[in-house]
TrEMBL record:
This is Trafficking protein particle complex subunit. GO terms for cellular component: endoplasmic reticulum; Golgi apparatus; TRAPP complex. It comes from Pyronema omphalodes (strain CBS 100304). Belongs to the TRAPP small subunits family. It is found in: Endoplasmic reticulum; Golgi apparatus, cis-Golgi network; Golgi apparatus.
Length: 141
């Protein structure tokens, strides 16, 4: 299984992006998107933002589960209290590991927000944050 993860800011700007593969069931953790699919990943996630904005006012929970589909790929979403969106493009139907992944990434994001040199909607370039995201992906996905 292959995943593309992005954090979208309050102005619909990408704050952080990465792709990775599964580490479960003998996976090596490398993304396996076809070459013609890679440029579409960002477009697919951003097209799901309209649906996220509709659903976020209906549901009371921060984890919105699967909000959109594109061919055989699903888009799952988690909202923060500050309206930052965590979007995951995947082909897995298991919701619980994705929810746990989002919870770990949210914790790392909150710690990034507490940094006095970081402002909301700034691009996250920290290697520590990246390693925490990848560790959560390896642990749950």
């Amino acid at each position: 299984m292959t995943f593309y993860f992005a954090i979208i800011g309050t102005k619909d700007n990408p704050i952080y992006e990465t792709e990775f593969g599964t580490s479960k069931q003998g996976g090596d953790g490398h993304a396996r998107f076809p070459d013609e699919q890679r440029p579409m990943n960002q477009f697919i996630l951003h097209s799901a933002l309209d649906i996220v904005e509709e659903v976020q006012w209906v549901q009371k929970e921060l984890y919105l589960k699967t909000v959109d589909r594109f061919n055989n790929l699903l888009v799952s979403c988690f909202l923060t209290a500050g309206n930052i969106k965590f979007l995951l493009l995947h082909d897995s139907k298991a919701e619980d590991p994705i929810r746990q992944f989002f919870a770990d990434v949210h914790e790392a994001y909150v710690k990034t927000l507490m940094n006095p040199f970081y402002e909301v909607d700034m691009r996250i370039t920290s290697t520590v944050f990246d390693s925490k995201v990848r560790a959560a992906a390896k642990k749950y996905l």
